[in-house]
Specification:
about 270 residues, alpha/beta, Rossmann fold, 2 domains, 5-stranded parallel sheet, two-stranded antiparallel sheet, globular, disordered C terminus
């Protein structure tokens, strides 16, 4: 535990990722300056040089893709009082988990060619599947509003339960025109909110980067997008894209491979 009167020591760690979530934290800008009055950042490759032997709060970005990663994240977990999964790679696997569709030896050969035999590669998994984390911040990259909320919860000793409503709720609150009504595919109806619906606010569709809601009705979503159970609003979308179930499943699995497999199994039992 942190000594009374001493600022919590914060460190950022990365595994298999683009490190974009750490860069997003820097976008807190003035809020970050306020935060630094209450914490001491001791390790953060994107913002400073040097490393620290100890830390109280560990923000961990990226997926586990090597045996060495497994031991490293366990060491971080044993060292820190609080561990935060930063971004969808750390929390749900994200793009890294796409490689799990093929045998690992084939994936490594395609990517690294003749050097494949020297590399350690295992099926990708989120940090949350290897160790328990105290907080999760979703998004690809991590959601700026959620980063702010979670940091405040950590510093005030509060829990942060992930929201379990669809992105559509935030679209309605923001009075944003439904992307589906514009004839575009949007995964907002089954995606967990918490990002303030930033993509749809700028005219883009939701691609599901925050993962699926706990009770997402995937079977119904597939049906309405393939015209098997057509709602009038979806008619233009289904006619425009003319896709089958396999294509719709690919849209869902861009970010949600582990979650989708589990949900499909539970819905079929």
């Amino acid at each position: 535990m942190t000594d009374k009167g001493q600022k919590p020591r914060i460190a950022f760690f990365d595994f298999a990722c683009c490190e974009g979530c750490q860069l997003t934290v820097l976008q807190l800008e003035e809020k970050l300056l306020d935060l630094l009055q209450h914490v001491e950042v001791v390790e953060w490759r994107e913002a400073m040089s040097g490393k620290a032997d100890s830390h109280d709060i560990a923000f961990c970005e990226g997926s586990i893709t090597r045996e060495a990663d497994v031991q490293r994240i366990k060491t971080i977990r044993n060292t820190a009082n609080t561990v935060v999964g930063l971004g969808s790679c750390a929390c749900i696997g994200c793009h890294n988990a796409l490689k799990n569709r093929w045998p690992m030896e084939d994936v490594v050969k395609v990517v690294y060619g003749s050097e494949a035999g020297q590399l350690d590669s295992i099926p990708a998994r989120p940090i949350t599947s290897v160790v328990n984390v105290d907080y999760r911040i979703l998004g690809c990259p991590a959601s700026l509003p959620e980063i702010d909320r979670v940091i405040k919860c950590i510093l005030t000793g509060q829990e942060y339960p992930l929201p379990n409503q669809p992105v559509c709720v935030e679209c309605k609150l923001n009075d944003t025109l439904c992307v589906l009504e514009k004839g575009e595919v949007c995964l907002g109806p089954v995606t967990r909110c918490g990002c303030n619906a930033i993509c749809t606010a700028y005219g883009d569709a939701c691609h599901g980067c925050r993962g699926l809601m706990d009770e997402a009705n995937l079977m119904a979503a597939v049906k309405v997008l393939t015209a098997e159970q057509l709602h009038p609003i979806m008619e233009v979308v289904a006619r425009r894209y003319d896709v089958g179930q396999d294509q719709v499943r690919q849209w869902f699995t861009m970010y949600n491979t582990p979650d989708l497999q589990l949900k499909e199994e539970s819905e079929q039992t």
